[in-house]
Write a structure and sequence with these properties.
Elements lengths: L1 E8 L6 H18 L7 E8 L6 H7 L3 E4 L5 H11 L4 E4 L11 H10 L4 E5 L11 H17 L1 H4 L15 E4 L15 H11 L4 E5 L13 H28 L9
Parallel strand pairs: 1-2, 1-4, 2-3, 5-7
Antiparallel strand pairs: 4-6, 5-6
Helix pairs in contact: 5-8
Amino acid sequence: MRASVVIPTLNEAEGLPRTLEVFYRAAASANRTLFPQDPVDWEVLVVDGASTDGTPEIARRLGARVVNEPRKGYGRAYRTGFDLVQGEYVATLDGDGTYPADKIPWMLLHLIHHDRDFLTGDRLTYLEQKAMTTEHRIGNLALNLTFRVLFHTCLKNAPARALVDSQSGLWVFRRSILPKLRLTQDGMAFSEELKLEVLLRGFRLEEIPIHYTERWGRPKLSSWRDGYRNLTYLFRKRVEISQETRRARQVPVPAEVGA
């Protein structure tokens, strides 16, 4: 079985070695215990946005495949990575040590055994005090509430808890769903766009609580700026869906031949 991990990076020389070390150790253990009959051949793809601290060299030294992506943006890095991965399954991680890299193999097993298409991590249930600033917490609260209000119809057929955390960046999913998703966002709004598209296209999504911890290295997220952009995207997407629905209802039903 082949699977890929995509990690977007920008100056993550401090956190990336630990992230990869934890993941490699967990993957090796899981191949002995969780996947003994069909060990997972993991591809690690680092999509680097012009780091100046040696991140690409560190990634290569630790066995990752590195792709340079000069175009800016969190979503842009993932869209580039998703076009290049070769695994049947795809997982994502940040390079700063915040997400539990050791949980990826277990999430893959859960996805397969429970016949899901997409798993996403919920950071908020077990959130550690130092993992988010007050501004970041407020922003997440506002975005999650807006998401649930604007897209309550999309969430009707999802599991009861989904989505507690619409902004999470830890995912495990089947690569086969990607061509069916319309992904357009280059920035942080990509995270909510991806989950929305999964729900809109009728794929089986499940959310799993995870431990989200304090990052290694300097934060790059601008809580207010990125939060505003994400909020704006949610309203634009709601309008877009409404317009598509109206157009679909207005399409005339063709008359039967010979009628």
